[in-house]
From TrEMBL:
Residues 5-121 form the Gfo/Idh/MocA-like oxidoreductase N-terminal domain. The keyword Oxidoreductase applies. Keywords: Oxidoreductase. Pfam families: GFO_IDH_MocA, GFO_IDH_MocA_C3. InterPro entries: Gfo/Idh/MocA-like_OxRdtase_N, Gfo/Idh/MocA_oxidrdct_glycsds, GFO_IDH_MocA-like_dom, NAD(P)-bd_dom_sf. It comes from the Bacteria. GO terms for molecular function: nucleotide binding; oxidoreductase activity. This is Gfo/Idh/MocA family oxidoreductase. PANTHER family: BCDNA.GH03377. Residues 131-254 form the GFO/IDH/MocA-like oxidoreductase domain.
């Protein structure tokens, strides 16, 4: 079975990651793209072998060959475009953050359920080969009962002309929505859902409508205590080390970095009473976006479950909203 893709928002992330992944993955074909300007859409289509280009979402969704769409527009458009796709009978792979609010996320889930189509969220870090190994190690009890975890995903990212991330009407928030949402989802994948959160979400450096520095202390449903740090205010001259995760248990620990590698490249170290084991993935390793597409195609064919359902994206946004509420109230907040 071939999944015939249309890309909604053929911009930077589609250019560098998803279009090449579609070209690489078996059983996937890019047939149509849309951008606000037809010329830009046509140029993208030529670069990536798509047959047709459109200057509107509505036009692309009328394309009968398209069976699934990748929504890669800014977050304020995700809900509308996902609902339109569901009404047109197209399966949806939506970029993170899924939406600006949990309310928008629920609208997306309801629309896809009503349309009988699949909604998957592009939390690609679950498919990093090192993170897949970590999940297997945890399931095998390699470090005993997990009691603590920490993930950092930060960089220096001041406001820039023409960049929408600092506009809350478009992005929904600052680094928690941009980078922290990855950490929250990765914790859910590896250690389980969050139950409550205490947070500092503040503007420390830049004059911006959104906060630029955030630290979340979460209690997971299994009792694990987890810390997520997500900043736009920290110069990151060594991302291959700084943007990483650590998980501690009663019998050992696991450390991996970087969490964001688009080819799974990086380090993974397991330390127990039996010694230290290192797992290194060299540059050019397994691409998470390709693995995600493989899982998406299997799910569309009915051969496996939806790899990252909309409900998981909704759960991440619920943690973000609880973090903002905690920061406002100065106390721990239960995740709804």
């Amino acid at each position: 079975m071939t999944v015939y893709w249309g890309i909604i928002g053929a911009g930077k992330i589609a250019e560098s990651q998803m279009a090449p992944a579609i070209a690489t993955a078996s059983g996937h074909e890019l047939v149509a793209v849309s951008r606000r300007t037809l010329d830009a859409a046509q140029q993208f289509a030529v670069r990536h072998g798509a047959q047709r280009a459109y200057d509107s979402v509505e036009a692309l969704l009328k394309d009968d060959q398209v069976s699934a769409v990748y929504v890669a527009t800014p977050p304020h458009l995700h809900a509308r475009e996902t609902v339109l796709a569901a009404e047109a009978g197209k399966h949806v792979l939506c970029e993170k953050p899924m939406a600006r609010t949990t309310g928008e996320a629920r609208e997306m889930i309801d629309a896809c359920r009503a349309g009988g189509v699949m909604l998957t969220i592009c939390h690609y870090q679950r498919f990093n080969a090192r993170h897949q190994r970590i999940r297997r190690l945890l399931e095998e009890g390699a470090i005993g009962q997990v009691t603590a975890a920490r993930i950092n995903f930060s960089d220096r990212f001041p406001p820039q002309p023409g960049v929408w991330h600092h506009d809350p009407r478009i992005s929904g928030g600052g680094p928690v929505m941009d980078l922290g949402i990855h950490c929250i989802d990765l914790l859910r994948f590896l250690c389980g859902p969050a139950e409550s959160v205490s947070a500092l979400v503040e503007t420390l450096v830049d004059s911006s409508p959104v906060a630029d520095t955030a630290t979340l202390l979460m209690r997971l449903a299994n009792g694990t205590q987890a810390v997520v740090t997500s900043h736009w205010t920290t110069a990151n001259h060594e991302p291959e080390r700084a943007n990483g995760l650590e998980i501690w248990g009663t019998k050992g620990s696991i450390a991996a970095a970087p969490i964001s590698a688009k080819d799974s490249a990086g380090t993974l170290r397991v330390l127990t009473e039996y010694g230290m084991q290192d797992y290194l993935v060299e540059p050019g390793g397994p691409r998470p976006h390709v693995a995600l597409l493989d899982a998406f195609g299997d799910a569309v064919a009915g051969e496996s479950p939806n790899p990252i359902p909309g409900e998981d994206g909704l759960a991440g946004l619920a943690v973000v909203e609880a973090a903002y509420e905690s920061a406002r109230r100065g106390q721990r907040v239960e995740v709804q």
